[in-house]
Amino acid sequence: MSVTSLGPGRVSLRPLKAEGYLGRIQRSLTAYIEAAGLGVGDRLPNERTLAAQLGVSRPTIREALQTWQAMGLVETRMGSGTYLQQEIRAGALHVPVTIDPGREAVLHSLELRRAIETDAARLAVGRGTPAEVGRLREALEAMEAAYAAHGFAIRQDRAFHEALYVASGNPLYLQIFRQLITRISEGFNASDENPFVTEPFADASQPDHRDLYEAVAARDADRAVAAVTRILDFVERELRGDA
Questions:
Q1: Could you say which of 4, 136, 151, 209 would form a disulfide bridge with 163 (CB–CB 3.0 to 4.6 Å)?
Q2: Could you tell me the CA-to-CA distances from 204 to 118, 144, 208, 210, 222 in Å, in that order?
Q3: pLDDT profile of the chain (243 residues), mean per 10
């Protein structure tokens, strides 16, 4: 620790030691990611390879990656590997989001999501390129197909909303959304406790998702904001149990 107690009401700070392995490893990993041109969705080399190349232990590599995962920068998938969730580059400031698990905290995060997603919809109408609007359509069609086949589409629903944030042209909105969803999902120990994996959680909101896409494609900001508001109103009713 870097704090020393000097008696009641008296506390001093000890001088910080030089940066340890963890910071140096993350700097080296960042340099590798930039040099290799890796972007969001790309997979990093496995822990064994990274440890061998850096000359450190696998637990040390794992700790560095777990720190990044806690910040929403990477995602480790069992049996598959570690994938970039955010752009990582030297000099970037990575700010973690702290959320206490529980339904009330989820409702608080939903209030934040309202603020950024309604604005993201408005911005997408004005800024979304034809290619980005096209990807929003593709995400919508994938979500509708998943619902038709399985009765739920958690992954596809998330991809749809991420496509909306991309079309907004504000990368911070996308990062905040990803961290919120990741932290909330990790905060629940069992899937039947997680309100976002209840089947079919958002089936009734499917028409609003299509209306949102059509509003963005038609460059109708008021209609897009109204569609997002209806979607999030539905989510809130589900969470509160009064849908």
A1: 136
A2: 20, 12, 8, 12, 21
A3: 47 51 82 87 90 86 85 82 84 63 75 94 97 97 91 87 95 84 58 46 80 98 97 85 63
